[in-house]
Amino acid sequence: MNPNEPRKMPVVYPVLWGGITLAYLVWMIFFMKDIILQKYETVAGRTVDGLLYDDITGFVGRHWLYPVWVIVSALTLLLFIVYIQKLLYAEKLGNFAKWFCLIGAIVGCVYVVAFGFLDAPNREGEMASFADKLKYVTASMIGLVWPWLFKLWGILGGATLFSNTMYAYRKYDFESKTGVILGSIGAAAIYMTINCPSFGETKDFSVPRCLAHWSGALLFAVCIAAPLVIFLFRKAKEEKGKFLWTLIVVVALLATMVVLLITVGKSAMIENIPMIAGYILVYLLNFTHFFDTSPVTNE
């Protein structure tokens, strides 16, 4: 394909995101409303790991916000169609696209890091220390204290990583329908996690809340990274050089994460490592000349 020719977005992507958004609206309106506004507000619902939280959803005493949240969050899902259209299938990547993605990557990375330092209780109900956050206090557990900031954590993380990945695909004239679809699934999956509050350190997957929370988090982690791994793998095969070394580093990082999860466990700081690495990677791909090929910039 001539990189200077406009590319037409396949209908599969708006259909996919339209279907995801419709399913989300049905889920939130007909299934989750009473659960979020009633069940999650009971003493039992707000008690996690033996600690009673004041408001784990952000809607206690503010039920009128629920329909607003449903509409706004659904609109943020539809924006992914715009990301694909205006970035991956743009006639050219202009300054607006460049600054949009650059600012998104910086803001997203800073927010993800800062969120991990917010106050949250430890196992004893006292203020968690940095060591606690290294060992076992996760981002979603922090979200029990800061539910609205956790919602933003999920939306911002998915949107900024996905949009920057689409920018990289277009910049390097790269195509992978599998990558785009997997990235879409990952970005959408985090909406399950931010709407189903953490179950703490307890992992009882027979409980729908726990299953949905963990399923969304794991799908997000795997699928949001998949488009970049696919990109690096194919580039490493074709051009080797720094793409190959970057792929090796990414694989080593993923292996290290598995070891840390097994030996140390899941925590906010450990969760931050792959997300920060993702932001660094898209920054190097999109806004520097680090890689040794001549990308198609279309700028």
In short:
With about 300 residues, the protein is mostly helical. Helices cover about 70% and strands about 0% of the residues.
Can you describe this structure?
By secondary structure, the protein is mainly α. The chain has one domain (12-287). The chain has eleven helices and two strands, in the order ααββααααααααα. A two-stranded antiparallel ribbon has the order 1-2. A hairpin with a 2-residue loop joins strand 1 and strand 2 (51-52).
List keywords for this structure.
299 residues; two-stranded antiparallel ribbon; globular
List the helices and strands and how they pair.
Elements: H1 12-37, H2 43-46, E1 47-48, E2 51-52, H3 65-88, H4 95-115, H5 130-135, H6 139-142, H7 147-171, H8 177-195, H9 208-239, H10 241-263, H11 268-287
Antiparallel strand pairs: 1-2
Give the overall shape.
globular
Count of structural domains = 1
Task: List the quaternary state of the chains.
Answer: single chain
Strand order of the largest sheet: 1-2
The description of the largest β-sheet is: 2 strands, antiparallel
Helix content: 55-70%
User: Distance N terminus to C terminus?
Assistant: 17 Å
The tally of strands reads 2
Order of helices and strands: HHEEHHHHHHHHH
